[in-house]
Structure formats: C-alpha cells, structure tokens
Design brief:
Number of strands: 0
Number of helices: 4
Largest sheet: none
Distance between the termini: 14 Å
Structural class: mainly alpha
Length: about 100
C-alpha cells in the first residue's frame, strides 16, 4: 500500500494551525480582519481533510470519523492511516527486519 496522499499530509497541520490562530484571535486580539481571513481558510482545510480522508481510507470508517473532529481530527486520522500502511507493508515483507 502507498502512504497517504500529499494533500492528506499537508492539510491536517494547516487546519490545526488555522484553528490555533482563530482561538488566539478570539481570546486575545479580537481582530475582525484575522477572523475574516483565517476563518474561511480553516473551513476549507477542515472540509478538505474530511474528503481526502474519506477517499484515502476507503472502508476504514474509523479514520473518516476521526477526521471530522475539528482541529486535531485530521492529525489523528493521518496517524491511523499511516499505521495501517506500515502494518500492511510489514505483513507483505516490504519493510526490513525490525523496521516499523
């Protein structure tokens, strides 16, 4: 099996970072400009993470459900998919001895 797609590796950290910026803005800055700029970016990243995970995971519904958790869900789904790929590679003998 291949590793997760580039889109799925890039968007979860972007989603998490944008959520952190939004929360910092709400708690400290209260700038409408920041919310107007980062809010749609976070929303798009959130949707892309869910869609990319659903496409990548296939029948693995746990990874898709994890991706729906705002902020950290994409990272959790990515980790679950990566361990699935590593486990499949280990079973087929694609990894060297002791490599995981």
């Amino acid at each position: 099996m291949n590793r997760p797609s580039r889109l799925l590796r890039v968007t979860p950290p972007l989603e998490l970072a944008s959520l952190a910026v939004l929360l910092a803005n709400v708690s400290v800055l209260h700038l409408q400009v920041v919310a107007s700029a980062i809010g749609p970016l976070h929303g798009c990243a959130y949707l892309i993470v869910i869609i990319a995970t659903a496409r990548e995971a296939g029948p693995n519904r746990t990874a898709t459900a994890l991706s729906a958790v705002p902020g950290i869900g994409g990272m959790l789904a990515l980790r679950r998919l990566a361990t699935r790929y590593a486990g499949a590679a280990g079973r087929t003998g694609l990894l060297p001895e002791g490599g995981r």
